[in-house]
Amino acid sequence: MDDQMPEPEPEHIIKWTFEENKLFENALAELNLENPDLFEKISLRGPGKTVEQIKEHYEALVDDIKMIESGCVRLPPYITTKKDEKESAYATRNIPNHWKKGPPWSPEEHEKFLIGLEKNGKGDWRSISRFCVQTRTPTQVASHAQKYYIRLEKQQQKPSSASSSRPPPPTSGSTAAQPSASFP
């Protein structure tokens, strides 16, 4: 007869129920992860596991996070609902402006911006973004250009000797722009 018993799972693999895992995750969210008694405190919260089992479960979770962050595990394609879109739009509107600020432009990005400005002219932000500053969107390039021109204008208005070495901003007929090392 071919009645075989399923092989028992290795002893070191302990199954966690949904409820046990939720207790574990909530404890991690509430407790200080730097606490040397972390695993003991989690076991006191009642997931029904030994300190060693909790420690192994934590290490497996850390390994999973590393795999996800390194790109080794693909995230599932989440389906966005109309409700999700509305909540997302509402949440975005309520974020304070100082949190919406993106990373500052690097000197290399600014140099590429100036080259793109020279090649494509003022106003062609999409081409500058696509072909020169590929790390920035056309909107970011336009915003950077606006700040760049405002700064150039302010420097031209100052009667200092330093401003005379600055290039004038390109006019609508001229597309030339000189690199400015002081504006990243």
Automatic annotation (TrEMBL):
<dbReference type="GO" id="GO:0003677">
    <property type="term" value="F:DNA binding"/>
</dbReference>
<dbReference type="GO" id="GO:0009908">
    <property type="term" value="P:flower development"/>
</dbReference>
<keyword id="KW-0238">DNA-binding</keyword>
<dbReference type="InterPro" id="IPR009057">
    <property type="entry name" value="Homeodomain-like_sf"/>
</dbReference>
<keyword id="KW-0805">Transcription regulation</keyword>
<dbReference type="GO" id="GO:0048262">
    <property type="term" value="P:determination of dorsal/ventral asymmetry"/>
</dbReference>
<dbReference type="GO" id="GO:0005634">
    <property type="term" value="C:nucleus"/>
</dbReference>
<protein>
    <recommendedName>
        <fullName>HTH myb-type domain-containing protein</fullName>
    </recommendedName>
</protein>
<dbReference type="InterPro" id="IPR006447">
    <property type="entry name" value="Myb_dom_plants"/>
</dbReference>
<feature type="domain" description="HTH myb-type">
    <location>
        <begin position="97"/>
        <end position="153"/>
    </location>
</feature>
<keyword id="KW-0804">Transcription</keyword>
<feature type="domain" description="Myb-like">
    <location>
        <begin position="104"/>
        <end position="149"/>
    </location>
</feature>
<feature type="compositionally biased region" description="Low complexity">
    <location>
        <begin position="172"/>
        <end position="184"/>
    </location>
</feature>
<dbReference type="InterPro" id="IPR001005">
    <property type="entry name" value="SANT/Myb"/>
</dbReference>
<dbReference type="InterPro" id="IPR017930">
    <property type="entry name" value="Myb_dom"/>
</dbReference>
<dbReference type="Pfam" id="PF00249">
    <property type="entry name" value="Myb_DNA-binding"/>
</dbReference>
<keyword id="KW-0539">Nucleus</keyword>
<feature type="region of interest" description="Disordered">
    <location>
        <begin position="140"/>
        <end position="184"/>
    </location>
</feature>
